[in-house]
Amino acid sequence: MVNIKRIGVFTSGGDAPGMNACIRAVVRTALYEKLSVTGIYQGYQGMLDGNFTEMTSRSVSNIIQLGGTILKTARCLEFKTKEGRAKAYENVKAAGIDALVAIGGDGTFTGADFFSKEYDIPVICIPGTIDNDLYGSDFTLGYDTATNTVIEAIDKIRDTAASHERLFFIEVMGRDSGCIALNAGIAGGAEAILLPEKETAIDELIAHLSAADGRGKKSSSIVIVAEGDQNGGAYNVAKKVKEKFDYYDTKVSILGHLQRGGSPSSFDRVLASRLGFAAVKELLKGNNRMTVGVRGNEVVTTPLEEAINNKEYKLSSDMLELVQVLAI
Ligand code: ADP
C-alpha cells in the first residue's frame, strides 16, 4: 500500500457543471487529512507538459458556483500511447504526486486505468459528464444542471411555438444516452421524445402528432430529439416529418453547447462535494482503481474496469410510458 502524501487532481474530457465544486471538495478533504494537493491543468495533457499548480484551501475559494473547470480540460491523444504515459509518469513522479483523483467520462476512466496499472499509482475516478451515461452511478456530475438548462430553453421556445402555432423539434445532447432528452422532455411537457435507445418510426410520430392535433393541441407542440436518435438528429426528423405531413409550420432548434455551461444546480453541487470527499477517503483507505458514485442516496464504489466495460440502461419503462400518457 502506498503511503499517500500528495494527491494530484485533474478534470478531463468534456467539461460539466459541478466539476469545480468537486475539485474544491477533493482539495479541502485532502488538506483536512493533512495531505498536499497538486492541481493538474488540462487533464492528461497537463501531465505530459508538467503543467501543475499547488492547491491551497484558498485556490478553491469562490468556485462552488462556477460552471466549467478552473483546472481546464483537454483531449490528449499522446496519452493513449505507452510513450506518452511514460512521459506523464516522469512529471507526476518529479512533482511528488503519489495518488490521483480523475474527474471525467469514459475516456478519462480508460486512461486512468492504463496509467494506474502501468505505474502502480492509486487512482479514484469521479463520473463527470452531462450525458449521465456512465456505469456505477445513478447520476453523473453536470447531468442535473444540463437537464434544468434544457427545461428553461424548452419553456422559452414553447412561448414562440404557442404564439405562432408552430411545431418545434428541439435537439438536445446525448449521442448514446437519452437521459437528458427523456427527463427534460417530461419536465418540459414534450409531445414526443426521440431517444437513441429506442427507434421511433417517422410514420408513428406523424400519427401521434396528427392525433394530438385532432385533440386541439396544435398550439403547443414540442418534440425533443436526442442528438443520437436513430433518425439522425432534429433536422432529419423535421425534414422527414415535413415530407410526409406538410401541415405544420415546423422549426428546428439545436441547443448545442449551452447545455454544458452554467452554474451547477444544488443537486450537482452536493453530488460533487460528496464524491470529491469520498474519492479522497477511498484513497486513504488504500483503495485503487475505483469509481465513486451514488446509488439511491448512498455513495458507492465500483471497480474501474467494471465501470469501463459496462453500459447502464438508465431509462425506466414507467417514464417511457409517462411520455405517451401525459401527452394526451
Ligand atoms: P471523456 O472522459 O469525457 O470520455 P475523452 O473520451 O475525450 O473524454 O477522454 C479524455 C482523455 O482520456 C483523452 O483525451 C485521452 O487523453 C484519455 N483517453 C481516452 N481513451 C484512452 C485510452 N484508450 N487510453 C489512454 N488514454 C485515453
Can I get a quick summary?
The protein is an alpha/beta fold.
Strand order of the largest sheet: 3-2-1-4-5-10-11
End-to-end Cα distance: 60 Å
The main β sheet shows up as: 7 strands, mixed
Radius of gyration: 22 Å
Structural description of this entry:
Its cofactor is Mg(2+). Keywords: Allosteric enzyme, ATP-binding, Cytoplasm, Glycolysis, Kinase, Magnesium, Metal-binding, Nucleotide-binding, Transferase. With 328 residues, the protein is an alpha/beta fold. The protein folds into two domains: 6-142 and 264-309, 3-Layer(aba) Sandwich (Rossmann fold), CATH 3.40.50.450; 144-260, 3-Layer(aba) Sandwich (Rossmann fold), CATH 3.40.50.460. Helix content is 42%, strand content 18%. The chain contains eleven helices and eleven strands. It has a seven-stranded mixed β-sheet with strand order 3-2-1-4-5-10-11, with helices on both faces. Helix 1 runs parallel beside helix 9 (266-284), helix 2 (43-49) crosses helix 3 (82-94) and helix 7 (202-214) packs across helix 8 (233-244). The site of adenosine-5'-diphosphate has 17 residues, from helix 4.
Topology of this protein?
Layout: E1 6-11, H1 19-32, E2 36-40, H2 43-49, E3 52-55, H3 82-94, E4 99-104, H4 106-119, E5 123-127, H5 143-164, E6 166-172, H6 179-187, E7 192-194, H7 202-214, E8 221-226, H8 233-244, E9 249-254, H9 266-284, E10 290-295, E11 298-303, H10 304-309, H11 317-326
Parallel strand pairs: 1-2, 1-4, 4-5, 5-10, 6-8, 6-9, 7-8
Antiparallel strand pairs: 2-3, 10-11
Bound molecules: adenosine-5'-diphosphate (ADP).
Adenosine-5'-diphosphate binds next to helix 4.
